[in-house]
Amino acid sequence: MTVYLDYNATTPVREAVLDEMLPYLKSGFGNPSSAHVYGRLAKEAVVKARSRIAQAVGCQPSQVIFTSGGSEANNLFLKGLAASLKPSKIAISAIEHPSVAKPAETLACSGWALRRIAVDQHGFLDMNDAKSALSPPCSMVSVMLANNETGAIQDVERIAELARSEKICMHTDAVQAFGKIPLDFSKLGVHAMTISAHKIYGPKGVGALIVDKRLPLMPLIEGGGQESGLRSGTENVAAIVGFGAAAEHAVSGMSDLMSRIGWLREKLECGLSEMGAFLFSKAGLRLPNTTYFSFPGIDGPTLVTEMDRAGFAIASGSACSSGATEPSATLLAMGVDADLARGAVRVSLGLENTESHVGDFLAAMHVTLSRLSGMMRRLQA
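Above: the chain's sequence. Below: its structure in token form.
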């Protein structure tokens, strides 16, 4: 059986989460907007889930706006806020997920000036450039809390302080951070924050935008006025229930899980370094489960394919762009050589990984590298 080592792409649903979801796929199928008993029971389930998520991320239940996932939540902030403001400047980091970068580029085609904040060679924001980017006129800024490829954790709290001092609306995409590091919406000081269920052992197809209620957002989807008028459409009750359960489990077991996974990552990275791997963002604070590396002269997608054949599921960069042939935009923004960036491969550990998985992976990687290096030598001869 293939060993799964791609938890930053998605996670399996916990059994306990699935158990809570199943009744709402069967007998508890009511529409939360209905006045009868089926509707009331469904509404109660949504209210409970909203409260569990609020508790997990340090906000009020009324600040949790359910969406179809992280991408929709990111778009809701950027486009929803832009719709209520006069075009000026929007700032994003140079390493944002496409669900932030692309809508920002769309806004740039309709009168907004787009400013990308530079990062250093390790993938961390250049604070001097951030100060420059947030100079007037700037209306909104989005900086991800933890990068999905490198795992680099940004000082979002500091950026938020700068943003508030300039009266700029601040958003953070915390999809990768949630469940891996402590997350407190109030402490971060942002106006909006994106989270998603399928990164924390919950179902796909549900996420949330956590919002400061004073934020002048316009809805992307209009209709029945659900989610405080910000996201119309009949709620996906089973998925929302799963999201609430997953959030609760993620917070309660995070410390022990991440401690164990961090130890596994150290073992993994020691083995990779001994084989000559270049480890990205190793010099700074990273998510404890994420390793992003490259072997000079070895093609990343080829290595992913060969390791899949050997029984290990890993990724070449972000799952949302793994079909791309271009080098990682994140690595290029870090100033990484294009050839080295093309070889980038990500291993992201999770709940079910063990020490034997890491040992077996390193052994398989050694064999695979020897074979690929031999093929390269023969081709060059």
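The chain has a mean pLDDT of 95.
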